[in-house]
């Protein structure tokens, strides 16, 4: 979108400010994201009154204009009434009189608009002849009897419609007013400022969603509310897509056939202005279900050509009058690969025959028909093996179903007339596990991948699988907004987008906080899909990991509930759907799994607490049900069934048959007090046969943290204890107490008194029954590296963990720039290179690199693990790579190895990060510099974990996210 | 024991009769197992009154006799009072006058006995000079003033003591009167019949038990009752051992030191007549704990020789005056292997040095000192690698800790002066898993292995690890009884032994039933230790396995509770300890695991029933606690702590820290009725993605059974169904109904109407909601093999399962006899060859073999799986083998392969059976004969499972015990 400013827009300049500052900037709700605001609710000298004093300006539209435009005007009419309670008249352009009116029309289709253009009152040169362009402009005396008008002109049908909905948003009607019950703020008066807003149309020509995997949620809901997935439901989908400036839909197809189930559906789609297609594996506008219902013989062109040809001919003939994109080629039945015998030659013949059918049934010049070949899963392999389709067919490249684009056009492919598109996923049914329940899609990741698609010119079609639609509101809007104008939304504006979205839906007061909440929960969900979280996911004994993760959820939960309490009641339903439910449900899910993990760990340790954790699991499982019930009861039951998707109980990739709570144990404590011990870093409860003496990870002068030990009970009666250390400067807290179930003790040091050097100290825990436990701790306080003397990282506990953005130096050059993607990925953020179209670099010398200064106390072998985004080799001749060296070593190439095996890919997408290794030998302790050299674009580095452990000195301990970032000695 | 009949003994001839017949034979309780009964409670003309009319015959014993003998007489005095309420006088032999007296004395130590022998009134030639021999004889006018006497004479101290306790048993005092609260039946009068019973002493010289792994049960109990494991506790152990005709003890040593903890313990052991030693890894009469407490330096002779020599010298000097067996050599500290550096030469030096210490401290002629070298675990390897000890040292061969003897003396070794012994296990702490809780030892297995030991002359020492002692009462008595006189107790008398034991403890009325109960529960426990049972152990979908196993437990449980109800209250405590508790607790444990397995299976299938099974698990876990509480409350809390051993929650071989219930899931059913299906033979619930159409295993005309399918609910509201078949002769029951949770339907055929040949039929289940389920079943009714036409087995469902004793022919010869061991092993019984000392046979021709006639409908590859006892290669040059052929094939040798790898051994002992395979190709369908050829003795064959399945036709399905035995076509 190009904004031609009439007055300056504060929104385009919005910085990421705190809540208070933003609240001033967003002092009125209601606007289109990223657009200049031209509507106000307080009169100003130059403004025109859309509604005032109980009178609404009429909405004028030509009878000759598109029915879809006139229908959109009726939505605008309803929207004005939603806002003001006053229903404006809708009238033909000729003959109406009013001090102010809204004139709507399509260039070349509306005599009204064409007349204004001809008369010179309206300059449509910025949109005329463009695809889906529009402009809004306050025009003086446009027509006889009309003093002023807001003219909404489109270059074509959808251009005009988008212009109409732009006004709807500006007056305060969210695109989600129906789909998410976003409340409309009542306004007694609505004014239009002098504006000339010209939008020259979208970057991506077809921008759509795919309703998929639609049972049980969407199906059950639609059955109850509309009697099925039919036109009564679809009109809501069409309207939503248009309000979001989308234009394209793959309809639900699990047990549904869009064109057949309800013939009104395709007719209305066309009327509304939605370009329909059938999904990636349903050729020639025919749903798979149609074949399931009517097909005879095998779904195999080599055996059943005649029947299939007729089947397809019937399909394209049926829909010939509707705006469509025709899917070509074929996959196996039921979205499965075709038989092994199928081959490239056969598929090329199929495509040729399909185009012959199109020529016969639709248009002899088939190049005028928008066709697409989806290179999904194994179909891409056919392409790579040489299969080709005619130049006018769009190649629809796909992600790996987990948001990582598998392929983008290379330079030659970018010259194709048909261009390229992307089929992307926010929801998926398949391995390593379905994710159908909730929004797990961080915008950061969508931007990083779709930016590649834009830069590589895959801009003909963007379609995203949104599952049941409903819990994906936020990323759907981002996807379509970004598709409209990627240049307007650089990575750094993700925060702005979110805050604008939050302000539009809930008002400016809490916008920053709500933006943080939605980006926060999707970031946490993006670390690992809830369906893949298990009791073992987060370490209960290392790096306080489970506690830290759960604290993040608890923080989001408390903040979300605080926002809810502050919001007006009218906003509660929308807030629950869009913000609160996913946070409550996912926080609860994480609490459940941490409790289940503890239940398992504690049962093996023999802890009295085992049963309390089991009770927590059961309670959380009940809470989950209660949250679903609240969702289903929203707005008088409007969304009943929309949360029917089971999220607990996965044992394979396929969804469970019902919600199944993780299994929990019960423990029968021994009679009497039975003291036992657990220590940080170790899974076992002590005493236990064969365990080495208890020892906690080292304490160090740089981080000055604490280490925990837990006295617990294997018996049913409490005991008391005293805890003492053998050093005056080593503190253990509490120093005494009673243990009914568990008491955690923290060990810390007074570093002003700790001897310089490495010192081993002991803490003795003496229970009132039985033998004492003696825990060893190493205190690291080296003479050779005093705190404050060195700005780099320090090796502690036989490892170094680094957040990638915390480089000591990022060295770029003219061709390659390092950029930090804040909040990208699992922890702090990512670091990557731009531009993404750059050719690979040869690492070494002065070439671009990140440098990390590190002080090592040990020498010898070091294994460096890089956590990088699980991106794929999106160019066939450019495997994603970077290079690594320590100090003056020759850089070693590291392949991200994106697709080398199914298990490695499953691990990477499941973990939300790919781990790649390099090994090095450090000749001596002391300062070293780790260098990460740029090679290919598209590599996003998130974390670096250096393991210097040996068989005798444990290095990196098991955990999901890796160790807490290592200390820096400071400067 | 040699019985010289005075009157004929019914007991020696006891057949295995039903309860009623036996009740007549066992018309009075109280007798020694296997002994002639010479005590009655009704006067007969020739009888003498031990007690009558309130007067008890005096017990006369010389002051010069062994203190241990006089102490045993005081036990007899108490026993007479226990029975009659009348306390007999104990007096010196000289000067007492009585019409009838009991004269007790030791040949060569008792002037009284020696005088009777000298006077010709008593012929002691049958015992004199023998080891532990004794006789009981009614002698007229033995002494002045004594008209008649029952003379109890022993060849030595223990011989006399055994004679005294023989009388105690005969009058009705069980050896277990104290240890298991076996009630004594009150008798107003007790008579002694004219008897001359001469027992020439035991076959096994030293017969003992090892109290081991004694925490938490024995330790906790002893601490509460006696203040620790001290002499106050041990006197009960000593007395028990002597009453059971044992003579030997390895004392508890986990945190205990017998000689040091209470110096009265060794002194009293010697006085009682118990030969003490220290366990297999504690040399020179010093407990491991003594080293732990006082040792300085490493437990490593190569590094700490001087200290160790002094440590050992102190030990043997301390105990030099007590009857002992000195353990030689050494293992690593804590019953672990020594370091890898240890070697044969070092160990030989250790033994030589230990013997030099013995020569110095105890007796210059060390060959007079009973010494033993325990060839436990890796120590046997030292022996096999050439290490030797002097000829007078007894070699103590060991089992694998799981009841399978690893080695027996070969012919040369049988000539050694020191002879050989066996260290055996009823309880074990180690891998694959500890079994410490309950009696899992079938007598059948003890017989089979200890018979080998006897036959191979390993009869110097038999010592068995009995854990805490308490739950092992029954096999302890069997082990010591068998050790006394193996020849008297052939395999076929196990039933008699059990019934006699049951009759002695609980009276004759329920003896047969109680014998069946104890042998029944140990057989079921012998299939798999309770500690190793898991929710997955028994198949829930194949062969109705879990149901069948649980039905066996339910049967035992019902019968045991019925017996309890019929027993007098005074017997309840004993019955609970000896019979009822293990049955209730193990039945409950099995129910718990089956429910836990169902919970897991059902949760994946999405069954409404999931939660009910979870509740069952929780209830069973509580029941387990209640049973422990009842045990602990017995006899006023006498046995508190004896069942403290955790049995649930194993995750490694080591015991869990507390009782941990198997984890169970909860399921949240979907809203409304959601019909689903499960079928026999398949784990999945349907509908499910990717499953083939439902099909049950075939029905056949020979077995004429039924197949099940289950309609279940994935929802929370009931649905109804109708079930119809597509054939008039195929029945499905019930034909309609309502499914709230699950309804099982059985499919059966009217075979008089089923077409001849193979017919595929369909059953259609139409739920009131959703699509029908159609289940296929194959009906096998072949023309070529009509029922009644063939006596052999028939291949059905692509397999043949055979109980080994169901051979068509057992063909032996003069050297080799086939014998069926009824009830041996996991199912019907075992088949093996005798004699066990026979040399290996070369299979083929007319050599001994079992033949199984089988009709196959298929041809091609067949895999034959033999289930054999997990016995080991007990002779170094004779690996256990048999041979297999079909028809006229050359027999193929099959090695039982007893020790080839740790995992295979762990699997075999865990399963209680070893599976070995042979593969064959059957050229054509029709009749074949499977031949199992004898090769080595010691192989016990239990089952044969022939798998004729292919990739397209499933053969044997997963289960623990294997398929139900295949039908025989009958004759």
List the main descriptive attributes of the protein structure presented here.
homodimer; 971 residues; 8-stranded parallel beta sheet; 6-stranded mixed beta sheet; 20 helices; disordered N terminus
How would you describe the overall organization of this protein?
Two copies of one chain form a homodimer. Chain A is of the alpha/beta class and 971 residues long. Helix content of chain A is 29%, strand content 23%. Chain A has an eight-stranded parallel beta sheet. Chain A has a six-stranded mixed beta sheet with strand order 5-4-6-8-7-10. In chain A, strands 30, 32, 35, 37, 38 and 40 form a six-stranded mixed beta sheet that branches. In chain A, a hairpin with a 5-residue loop joins strand 28 (757-767) and strand 29 (773-781). The two termini of chain A are 46 Å apart. Chains A and B meet through helix 18, helix 19, strand 19 and strand 20 of A and helix 18, helix 19, strand 19 and strand 20 of B. Strand 19 (659-660) of chain A pairs antiparallel with strand 20 (667-668) of chain B.
């Amino acid at each position: 979108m190009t904004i031609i400013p009439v007055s300056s827009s504060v929104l385009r300049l919005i910085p990421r400010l705190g809540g208070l500052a933003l609240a001033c900037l967003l002092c009125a709700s209601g606007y289109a994201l990223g657009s200049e605001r031209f509507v106000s609710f307080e009169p100003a000298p130059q403004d025109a009154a859309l509604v005032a004093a109980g009178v609404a300006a009429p909405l004028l539209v030509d009878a000759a204009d598109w029915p879809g435009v006139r229908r959109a005007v009726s939505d605008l009419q309803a929207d004005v009434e939603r806002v003001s309670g006053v229903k404006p008249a809708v009238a033909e352009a000729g003959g109406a009189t009013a001090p102010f009116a809204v004139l709507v029309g399509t260039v070349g289709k509306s005599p009204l608009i064409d007349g204004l253009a001809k008369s010179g009152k309206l300059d449509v040169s910025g949109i005329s002849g463009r695809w889906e362009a529009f402009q809004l402009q306050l025009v003086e005396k446009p027509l006889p009897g009309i003093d002023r008008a807001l003219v909404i002109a489109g270059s074509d049908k959808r251009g005009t419609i988008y212009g109409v909905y732009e006004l709807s948003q500006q007056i305060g009607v969210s695109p989600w007013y129906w789909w998410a019950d976003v409340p409309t703020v009542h306004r007694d008066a609505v004014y239009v400022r002098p504006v000339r807003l010209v939008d020259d149309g979208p970057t991506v020509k077809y921008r759509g969603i795919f309703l998929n995997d639609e049972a049980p949620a969407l199906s059950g809901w639609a059955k109850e509310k509309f009697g099925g997935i039919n036109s009564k439901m679809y009109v809501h989908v069409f309207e939503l897509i248009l309000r979001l400036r989308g234009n394209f839909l793959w309809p639900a197809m699990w047990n549904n056939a869009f064109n057949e189930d309800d013939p009104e559906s395709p007719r209305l789609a066309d009327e509304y202005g939605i370009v329909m297609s059938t999904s990636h594996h349903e050729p020639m506008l025919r749903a798979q279900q149609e074949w399931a219902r009517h097909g005879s013989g095998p779904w195999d062109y080599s055996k059943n050509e005649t029947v299939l040809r007729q089947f397809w001919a019937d399909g394209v003939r049926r829909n010939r009058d509707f705006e469509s994109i025709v899917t070509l080629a074929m996959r196996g039945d039921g979205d499965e690969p075709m038989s092994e015998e199928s081959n490239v030659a056969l598929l090329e013949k199929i495509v040729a025959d399909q185009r012959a059918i199109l020529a016969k049934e639709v248009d002899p010049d088939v190049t005028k028909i928008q066709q697409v070949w989806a290179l999904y899963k194994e179909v891409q392999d056919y392409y790579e093996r040489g299969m080709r389709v005619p130049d006018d067919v769009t190649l629809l490249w796909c992600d790996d179903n987990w948001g990582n684009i598998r392929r983008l056009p290379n330079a030659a492919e970018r010259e194709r007339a048909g261009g390229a598109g992307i089929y992307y996923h926010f929801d998926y049914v398949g391995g390593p596990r379905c994710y159908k329940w909730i929004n797990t899609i961080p915008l950061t990741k969508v931007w990083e991948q779709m930016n590649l698609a834009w830069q590589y010119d895959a801009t003909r079609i963007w379609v995203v699988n949104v599952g049941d639609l409903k819990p994906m509101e936020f990323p759907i809007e981002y996807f379509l907004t970004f598709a409209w104008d990627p240049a307007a939304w650089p990575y750094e504006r993700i925060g702005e987008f979110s805050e604008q979205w939050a302000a539009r839906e809930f008002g400016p007061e809490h916008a920053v906080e709500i933006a943080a909440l939605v980006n926060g929960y999707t970031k946490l969900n993006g670390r690992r899909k809830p369906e893949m979280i298990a009791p073992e996911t987060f370490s209960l004994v290392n790096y306080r990991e489970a506690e830290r993760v759960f604290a993040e959820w608890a923080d989001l939960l408390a903040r979300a509930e605080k926002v809810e309490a502050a919001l007006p009641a009218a906003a509660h339903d929308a807030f629950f759907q869009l913000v609160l439910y996913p946070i409550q449900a996912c926080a609860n899910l994480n609490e459940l799994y941490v409790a289940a993990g503890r239940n398992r760990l504690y049962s093996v340790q023999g802890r009295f607490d085992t049963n309390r954790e089991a009770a927590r699991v059961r309670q959380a499982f009940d809470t989950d049900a209660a949250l679903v019930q609240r969702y289903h009861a929203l707005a008088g039951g409007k969304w009943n069934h929309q949360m029917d998707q089971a999220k607990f109980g996965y044992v394979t990739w396929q969804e469970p048959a019902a919600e199944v709570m993780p299994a929990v144990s019960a423990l029968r404590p021994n009679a009497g007090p039975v003291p036992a011990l657990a220590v940080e870093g170790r899974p076992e409860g002590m005493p236990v046969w064969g365990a080495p003496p208890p020892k906690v990870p080292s304490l160090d002068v740089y981080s000055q943290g604490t280490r925990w030990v837990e006295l617990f009970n294997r018996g049913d009666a409490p005991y008391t204890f005293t805890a003492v250390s053998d050093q005056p400067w080593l503190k253990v807290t509490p120093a005494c107490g009673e243990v009914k179930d568990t008491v955690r003790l923290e060990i810390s040091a007074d570093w002003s008194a700790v001897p310089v050097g490495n010192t081993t100290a002991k803490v003795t825990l003496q229970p009132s029954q039985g033998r004492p436990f003696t825990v060893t701790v190493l205190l690291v306080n080296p003479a050779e590296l005093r705190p404050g003397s060195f700005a780099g990282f320090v090796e502690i506990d036989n490892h170094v963990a680094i957040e990638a953005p915390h480089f000591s130096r990022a060295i770029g050059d003219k061709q390659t720039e390092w950029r930090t993607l804040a909040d990208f990925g699992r922890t702090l953020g990512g670091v990557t290179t731009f531009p993404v179209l750059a050719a690979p670099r040869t690492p070494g010398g002065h070439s671009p690199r990140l440098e990390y200064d590190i002080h090592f106390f040990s020498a010898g072998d070091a294994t460096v693990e890089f956590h990088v985004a699980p991106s794929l080799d999106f160019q066939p001749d450019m495997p994603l790579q970077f290079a690594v060296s320590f100090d003056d070593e020759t850089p070693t190439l590291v392949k991200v190895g994106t697709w080398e095996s199914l298990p490695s890919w499953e691990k990477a997408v499941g973990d939300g990060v790919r781990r790649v290794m390099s090994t090095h030998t450090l000749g001596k302790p002391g300062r070293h510099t780790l260098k990460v050299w740029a090679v290919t674009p598209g590599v996003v580095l998130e974390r670096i974990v250096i393991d210097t452990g040996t068989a005798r000195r444990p290095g990196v301990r098991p955990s999901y996210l890796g160790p807490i970032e290592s200390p820096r000695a400071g400067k």
